TrEMBL record:
Segments forming domain Glycoside hydrolase family 13 N-terminal: 15-84
One GO term (biological process): carbohydrate metabolic process
Annotated organism of origin: Winogradskyella thalassocola
Pfam families: CBM_48 (PF02922)
Protein name: Carbohydrate-binding module 48 (Isoamylase N-terminal domain)
Signal peptide: none
A GO molecular-function descriptor: hydrolase activity, hydrolyzing O-glycosyl compounds
SUPFAM superfamilies documented for this protein: E set domains (SSF81296)
Length: 98
């Protein structure tokens, strides 16, 4: 998995590209505090090489919690900036710092 950050000079925004290698998966989405944990808000698109990708414009100088949903299963990104325990889910969420 990979997270690419591209800060814009013209706006207080960071373009964040989420990449998830999941060749066998039918669907991959990213959910988090940036989209109210809506499982349908940010579906990633499957590329020809089997990697699911999606780019979001997120406010910089902010931290967000997130997770991926791969065919209905929640997974974490091993390249997240850090992790935060979520008592509601009883698991850790990924954290991205912008």
């Amino acid at each position: 998995m990979a997270i690419k950050k591209q800060y814009l000079k013209s706006k207080p925004v960071c373009k964040v590209t989420f990449s998830v290698p999941a060749e066998e998966a039918k669907s991959v989405a990213v959910v988090g505090s940036f989209n109210e944990w809506n499982t349908e808000a940010t579906e990633l698109k499957k590329q020809k090489n089997g990697i699911f990708k999606g780019t979001l414009d997120l406010a910089k100088d902010t931290s967000y919690e997130f997770r991926y949903i791969v065919d209905g299963a929640y997974i974490n990104d091993d390249q997240a900036d850090s992790y935060a325990f979520n008592e509601f889910a009883g698991e850790e969420n990924c954290v991205i710092n912008l």
